[in-house]
Write a structure and sequence with these properties.
Number of helices: 5
Structural class: mainly alpha
Largest sheet: 2 strands, antiparallel
Subcellular location: Cell inner membrane; Cell membrane
CATH topology: Non-ribosomal Peptide Synthetase Peptidyl Carrier Protein, Chain A
Shape: elongated
Strand order of the largest sheet: 1-2
Order of helices and strands: HHEHEHH
Keywords: Cell inner membrane, Cell membrane, Ion channel, Ion transport, Membrane, Transmembrane, Transmembrane helix, Transport
Membrane topology: Multi-pass membrane protein
CATH superfamily: Large-conductance mechanosensitive channel, MscL, domain 1
Organism: Roseovarius marisflavi
Number of strands: 2
Oligomer: single chain
Function: Channel that opens in response to stretch forces in the membrane lipid bilayer. May participate in the regulation of osmotic pressure changes within the cell.
Number of domains: 1
Radius of gyration: 29 Å
Strand content: under 5%
Distance between the termini: 52 Å
Helix content: over 70%
């Protein structure tokens, strides 16, 4: 069973998937920063200083100065601003992935059209040559 597990892990597609997940996690941090540090301020500027991530509706009684204060007090909040930010994050990630796939697909035919290197004689060709030379002796 241990050998099966080693064989499974050693397969190329499993390793490729692991690398993809790690890069995806790092990419998520970059996109999160892009949205919160660059895009949000621009959107906020056009909307009169509104910060989407701070938009919420209190589900219950009480008054709180921020969503953080409401959550700290244990109040139930409907944090629709965070949802808006998650949608913006998703759209940005989807757009970037789309552009990457499009670039790879555009480059793929160029790679396939490249002339292949001469592989030389096959193992069968060499064995037949050896056989023929032994017949001559």
């Amino acid at each position: 069973m241990l050998q099966e597990f080693k064989d499974f892990i050693a397969k190329g597609n499993v390793m490729d998937m692991a690398v993809g997940i790690i890069i995806g996690a790092a990419f998520t941090a970059i996109v999160g920063s892009l949205v919160s540090d660059l895009i949000n301020p621009i959107i906020s500027l056009f909307l009169g200083g509104v910060d989407f991530s701070g938009l919420y509706v209190l589900l219950g009684t009480g008054e709180y100065v921020s969503i953080a204060a409401a959550e700290e007090a244990g109040a139930a909040v409907f944090a629709y601003g965070r949802f808006i930010m998650a949608v913006i994050n998703f759209l940005i990630v989807a757009w970037v992935v789309f552009m990457l796939v499009k670039a790879v697909n555009r480059a793929k035919p160029k790679v396939e059209e490249a002339p292949a290197a001469d592989p030389g004689p096959s193992e069968l060709d060499i064995l037949m040559e050896i056989r023929d030379s032994l017949k001559k002796k």
